[in-house]
Amino acid sequence: MKFGSNQSKPEFTVDLKGATIEMASKDKSSKKNVFELKTCQGTELLIQSDNDTVINDWFKVLSTTINNQPVETVEAIEEDTPDSPGIEKQDKEKDHKDPRKLRSMKVSSIDSSEQKKTKKNLKKFLTRRPTLQAVREKGYIKDQVFGANLANLCQRENDTVPKFVKLCIEHVEEYGLDVDGIYRVSGNLAVIQKLRFAVNHDEKLNLNDSKWEDIHVITGALKMFFRELPEPLFTFNHFNDFVNAIKQEPRQRVTAVKDLIKQLPKPNQDTMQLLFRHLKRVIENGEKNRMTYQSIAIVFGPTLLKPEKETGNIAIHTVYQNQIVELILLEINSIFGR
């Protein structure tokens, strides 16, 4: 394909061997009557005319010229790409006489070669890929703390109470027991998320760092930890049992709740005891922080105790959740011992 008059040297030429021509998409041009010409070398040209007759003539001439172009020899194809399985030399010589078959054979051969290459590289990647345990041992991947299963987290840390829970409680008891609205007041969510990220990625966490100077950020992160447990501290399968226990006569409630807590996994029991004893100390400083049994229960009830699926009246569930937490706080020595 040449541009320019018969008397002048063409500005440039376009090799039409193996080229394609089709209507251009709207994202290529908003004008009407636009065709896109693509060559095997990667050249892309847009051809346009407002005259329908002219553009149709161009399209017919280019299409005919492309179809009549001589194709590459079989030898050239063999040099560029590996043979497709099952193609004999006799078939290649026969296909050489048919340009369409030869072009199809070349594309098929290239596709097959690329697929084999991709599969080979993928196999190498998978066989050389280190195990998850090896990556963890080298420190490239750190296990998450937030959102982790409580039992798995405790097993990983070789303890029955998560380290982060202990850190938060110790920090609050040292700096936050007399802070007004402790646990009720929300901390800055952006800073809480930063702390969450630090906990998940930094083994050496220092809560005394000035970044976490707002005590409500620490309490907010602790509440978020319990909120993000895959299964709540009181476990899904015991939810209805705890609700039924709180519905019993006052004298029977404590015994029923105590027996249910004993049925929980060891990490749940120990974490629950540490948390509730801490919250009891928060309430004991109520003259300074203005936190009561009821206000603590409202904050922690829906976080620690919830059904797997909300099927009944949510408002009623909330009442029971708060009552169970409040009962444990009031009868903490009867339930967990002195």
From TrEMBL:
GO terms for biological process: signal transduction. The keyword Phosphoprotein does not apply. Residues 75-119 are annotated as: Disordered. Keywords: GTPase activation. It comes from the Eukaryota. InterPro entries: PH-like_dom_sf (IPR011993), PH_domain (IPR001849), Rho-GAP (IPR050729), Rho_GTPase_activation_prot (IPR008936), RhoGAP_dom (IPR000198). One of its GO terms (cellular component) is cytoplasm. Residues 148-336 form the Rho-GAP domain. Residues 1-67 form the PH domain. GO terms for molecular function: GTPase activator activity. The keyword Amino-acid biosynthesis does not apply. Residues 86-98 have a biased composition (Basic and acidic residues). This is Rho GTPase activating protein 12.
